[in-house]
Amino acid sequence: MPSYFKWAVFASIAVLSFASFILILVAMSTQKWMTGKILCKTGAELVNATDPELVKFMGEIYYGLFGGGKIRQCGLGGRRSKFTIFPHLVKKLNTALHVAIILFLCMAFSFALVSLAFCIFNIIKVPYRAIKGPAGIALWNVLAGGFAVLGVTSFMAAVKLHNLTERIANFQENVFQFVILEEQYEDSFWLCVASATIHGVNLLLVAISTIHFPKRKTKTEEANVAAEDIMY
């Protein structure tokens, strides 16, 4: 029973590690990390717009790690546009922080794959001491979860401390100035949060796999022991 239990735990960790890899990959490939409402401040000030009229100057914006789009409302109807972060827009942002976010997430899904590989090695009992047992699996899950947390917190820092949404909204805007009315984290951001949570669950499963269950002796074993005792 203990061996089957440990096999089931390692298999569960492998499935969760693969799920974490997929979640981060999907999150990085989508453009819905953040959405928000933007106000065309310049247009509203030109016509002295009051509260009911401000609706005509409110647009929307969404973006991810590599691109996004916005709807500009400057009193002339909505105008849609799309943009890419690289190679031009990133120069207007905190370049080091934005690149660090991407690198952190790349490291996170890389270590998630390593954790998956270690689980498979332990399931098939590859005889390498360096990768056998729960210690190696725990190590790689700590690294994967840690880098996922770093990526998420760095993105939050870019949004809150470095006005990421406002900088993106005003990219290549020479005439109009936009201010941010609302910001909301979207599904792609929460996928990375879920990925970090998965590695926390994996660490709990690793701890459970170290539990030693007492072995039950069969009657045959008891009989053999008794016979040997008689002989000696």
UniProtKB/TrEMBL annotation:
One of its GO terms (cellular component) is membrane. InterPro entries: Clarin. It is a multi-pass membrane protein. It is found in: Membrane. Keywords: Membrane, Transmembrane, Transmembrane helix. The keyword Membrane applies. GO terms for biological process: sensory perception of sound. Belongs to the clarin family. This is Clarin 2. It comes from Podarcis lilfordi. The lineage of its organism: Eukaryota, Metazoa, Chordata, Craniata, Vertebrata.
